[in-house]
Amino acid sequence: MPDIPNAEILESVAFADVREAANRLAGVANRTPAQTSRTLDSMLGAEAWCKCENFQRVGAFKFRGAYNAIATLEEESKRRGVLTYSSGNHAQGIALAGRLLGVPTTIIMPTDAPPVKIEATRGYLGTGSEVVLYDRNETTREELGERMSRERGLTVIPPYDHPKVIAGQGTVAKELVEQMAETAGGPPDVLFVCCGGGGLLSGCAIATKALAPGCRVVGVEPAEADDATRSFRTGKLHTVHNPPTIADGARTPSLGRFTFPLVREHVNDMMTVSEAEIATATLFAMERMKIVIEPSGALALAGALQLANDRPDEIRGKRVGIVISGGNVDLSIIPELRRLAGET
User: Average pLDDT of 140-169?
Assistant: First the structure.
């Protein structure tokens, strides 16, 4: 695709787009709870509100962006259908959004994706939709997706690097800021957001800066997949290849051509968390907060806990927002989580 000037990219998603996405999602997406925990407050030395997107439809924030992107297509594009490639939550989000909107969807997934994810995606499919499996050793999802979209006239909706997807994800922060204004006496002073490809982070930063300009937005990613942090620090796009992190939703190779400049423009800071910190945060949410979350969904929580431990003055006494991005966890990994957390 042709290069897009940086100034045009920075104007591609504004708070008005997030607000419009919120209107489209009203009555369709769940307005997920902002959950509190006295134990967590004590550990942070602050007042925290966790935005529980594990209670979103398909179990993750991805439904928001998927629905917004499909809903805004022209009628001819809706008739032809859409295509995406994902082995996780975006696949399920596109499948369900397409079914609700009556738009055929084609989901490209690798043959070695967890069977539970393949079956879950198939379970959300509507009429005229399908999951197409491919062998990673024979082709890439991008190559297959480009060929199929060209041959079938399908519109490609990527997992994160798309203005309408970004705007949809931004509704997470819009809701959280509004919920905290109602129950916490004001908006967050600091907002921690998980980061993989940067769609959620950039959208949330745009919304937060519009509604709470004084709030610091901090993106959190695995130390084993620190491409976004390095890109943020240097101003040059860094990449990783299939990084060995238990947070599988953050194994994206890099920020995108939209998300990279948007993250640098609107996010205040980036930080990384270790595999042990990710595992500890995931288990804490399950055992103490009684919510089931996936390791990728625990990144922001792990970041808040790390900051409270290493630099407590930066968070003590403040209102803290934490985005829990998803809850689609394979419970068979709990022994591995305990091992990483040093419990066994």
Answer: 93
94 pLDDT above the threshold of 90? yes
Contacts of 205 (CB under 8 A, 6+ apart): 173, 193, 217, 262, 263, 266, 267
Cα 337 to Cα 133, 326, 334: the distances in Å are 29, 16, 5
Q: Which of 113-117, 152-156, 284-288, 296-300 has the lowest mean pLDDT?
A: 113-117
**Is residue 221 over pLDDT 80?**
yes
The residue-averaged pLDDT of 225-239 equals 96
Mean pLDDT on 31-42: 97
As a whole number of angstroms, the distance between CA 51 and CA 232 comes to 24
**Separation of alpha carbons 51 and 49, rounded Å:** 6
Per the model's pLDDT, the better-predicted residue between 269 and 143 turns out to be 269
The dihedrals phi and psi of 304, each to the nearest 5 degrees, come to -65, -40
Q: Which residues are catalytic?
A: 62, 325
CATH architecture for the domain at 63-156: 3-Layer(aba) Sandwich (3.40)
The CA distance from 41 to 47, in Å, is 5
| Dihedral (CA of 14, 94, 172, 116) sign | negative
DSSP state letter for 152: H
3-class secondary structure, 198 = coil
**Residue 194, beta-bridge partner list:** 220
Cβ atoms of residues 166 and 21 within 8 Å: no
Say whether 63-156 and 6-60+162-340 share the same fold.
yes
Q: What is the pLDDT of residues 111-137, one digit of tens each?
A: 887 787 888 999 999 999 999 999 988
In this structure, the number of other CB atoms found within 10 A of the CB of residue 169 comes to: 33
Q: Alpha helices of the chain — where are they, by DSSP H?
A: 6-10, 15-25, 38-44, 62-71, 75-80, 89-101, 115-124, 141-152, 163-183, 199-211, 227-234, 259-266, 275-287, 299-310, 334-340
Residue whose C-alpha is closest to residue 292's, from 127, 60, 42, 93: 60
What residues does each domain of the chain span?
6-60+162-340, 63-156
Residue 194 falls in which region: left (phi positive, over 0), alpha (psi -120 to 50) or beta = beta
The domain defined by 6-60+162-340 folds into Rossmann fold (3.40.50)
**Arithmetic mean of pLDDT, 141-158:** 92
